[in-house]
Design goal:
Elements (H helix, E strand, L loop, with lengths): L1 H7 L1 E2 L4 H9 L10 E2 H6 L2 E4 L17 E5 L18 E3 L18 E3 L18 E3 L7 E3 L8 E3 L7 E3 L8 E3 L11 E5 L3 E4 L3 E5 L8 E3 L5 E3 L5 H5 L4 E3 L5
Parallel strand pairs: 3-4, 4-5, 5-6, 6-7, 7-9, 8-10, 9-11, 11-15, 12-14, 15-17
Antiparallel strand pairs: 1-2, 13-14, 13-16
Amino acid sequence: MTQEFKDTNFVSISDIGFKKALVALGIIADEKSEITHFEAKAYIGKMNVSGFDIENLSEIAIFENITELDCSNNALKALDLSRNKALKNLDVSDNDLEMLDLTNNPFLERLDCFGNLLKDLNLSQNTTLKHLDCSNNRLEILDLSKNTQLESLECRWNVLKYLDWKHIHRLQNFNFDINIQRKTEKRKARIGESKVLQSEEFSIFLEGLLKGIKRIDKKGLLSYNPQKNDDLQRRNRLAQLERYIFY
């Protein structure tokens, strides 16, 4: 009885941008309408609320059965997805997020969170993740030791000091571009123990066997040093290695 009462309760959508998005999606009739818990839980599949100037998305919690959420290009500073456990695809790019808790989203396969203010990104519970774009944040450490299914990784334009991918063997696309704080600063980003990519700004050490990699984009690097590791060239299917020089 209690659950039925909760399901029939109407929920007031606090953010006008989110309400406009729900109208555009046909979930509510107009901006004066509300939605019940039951109706929200019945909504499955993808929810695209990108570009509606949303500042508060707290009511996303009632849409607990959605599998895809695109809330990119808004003005979000916080986002609670702890009740959206069914999510497989998530795009929160181009917001103002300083923190992103995904520990309750174990089925995530795709995550786009570029263009935020993230200093930390805990992906230890997201073991099914296949695509990650965390570019243009403030990340110094990126631990991918639990993300063994990764096929595509974009982590350019951060301030990475350490990147752990030693258990990733399915990677096909890798883009780290320039990871620096200041152009005058020497920086090292530890990814591994043997392959070295050298630039004026930092050195990046590639660890792991990269067996399936087909493309590496290393924009900003001034030299590529394959010494002490013939495994990368011998054991992968590398088809393209891009090199651009920035001045």
